[in-house]
Amino acid sequence: MMEMKVADGMPLYIADAEVERILRAGDLAPVLTRAFLSWREGQVNMQPRFRTDQDGFRLVSMGAVMPALGYAGVKVYSHVAGRLCFRIMLFCTRTGAMLATVEANALTKFRTAACSVLSARRYADPQADTLGLFGLGPVGYEHALQLSRAFPLRRILLCDPRAGETLRAALERDTGVRVALADADAVARQSNIIVTATRSLVPVFDGALLRPGTFVAAVGSCLKHAREVDAVTVARAGVVVLEWPEQTLQDTGDLLLFDDQAALRAKVESLADMLAAGQASAYEPGRIVMYNAVGVALEDIAAASMIYETALEAA
């Protein structure tokens, strides 16, 4: 961690374009790992996601205090008519000074994908050659980019009714991996790694079709009534990795609506405990593993701290 200071006596304002440039050239894995391990050791406190709704407008906030990294912050975003606007306010835990306001539209896709990759490196087949992708919005696209660098992918099976030839060709160009449009059944049957990054309220594939050894990252839903994955997928999973089990189990219908809560909780592993177990692969060919993410504040504040430090060095 660099010495805390504020450039020119004023907090920085870091726009999405700069965030994109910094994170595209950097690696979030070390700072995310440190943040989760610090939390596991009792050195981080988090504010869960808090929603306030009125007349079709939703305001959401979540925060984290991380003295071990030297930072605290809050992420705030609005949601109206399907549009989202994200901002992070970053503070120094030593002085209390405000350090920066960070536009977090781009940041969100980077940190979400980076955490999925951390989990996939632990539990997916290290020789995985087929990625199945449901949803080609910014979060899905970023998952394809990061997973194509982490695994020896030879093809990406894309299931998104709104993704035409232009998007398919762009993804193929940016990943260097052959991309084919496919239906949900083909994706479920043929993929080693599956990512669901949609806003679907109902499951997007049939969990009975999954091959043993499949790794599923369900990252699109943080709504109590929405289910991107079905109960069969949850039941078949031997391990369910969650960022913050106490929050995630209550935040997404994927898990909240699962009938056998005792059986589910018995196979839950926190992302922090997974990281503490080491970096060696724990892949088992006969075991399905599911990573379910809703996003937690320490990810945002840790990522914002890296962005801030990089921006300061360049100032």
Task: Provide a descriptive summary of the structure in words.
The chain has 315 residues and is α/β, with parallel strands linked by helices. The chain folds into 2 domains: 12-108 and 298-314, ornithine cyclodeaminase, domain 1 (2-Layer Sandwich); 109-295, Rossmann fold (3-Layer(aba) Sandwich), CATH 3.40.50. It contains 12 helices and 14 strands. The strands form 2 sheets. Strands 9-8-7-10-11-14-12-13 form an 8-stranded parallel β-sheet, sandwiched between helices. Strand 7, helix 4 and strand 8 form a beta-alpha-beta unit. The radius of gyration is 19 Å and the shape is globular. The model is unreliable at 1-5 (pLDDT under 50).
The pLDDT mean sits at 95
Top-tier CATH class of the largest domain? Alpha Beta
User: Per DSSP, what share of the residues sits in E-state strands of 2 or more residues?
Assistant: 25-35%
Task: List the secondary-structure elements in sequence, H or E.
Answer: EHHEEEEEHEHEHEHEEHEHHHEHEH
Distance between the termini: 17 Å
Number of structural units classed as domains: 2
According to CATH, the homologous superfamily of the largest domain is NAD(P)-binding Rossmann-like Domain
Q: Number of helical runs?
A: 12
Protein name: Ornithine cyclodeaminase
InterPro entries: NAD(P)-bd_dom_sf, ODC_Mu_crystall, ODC_N
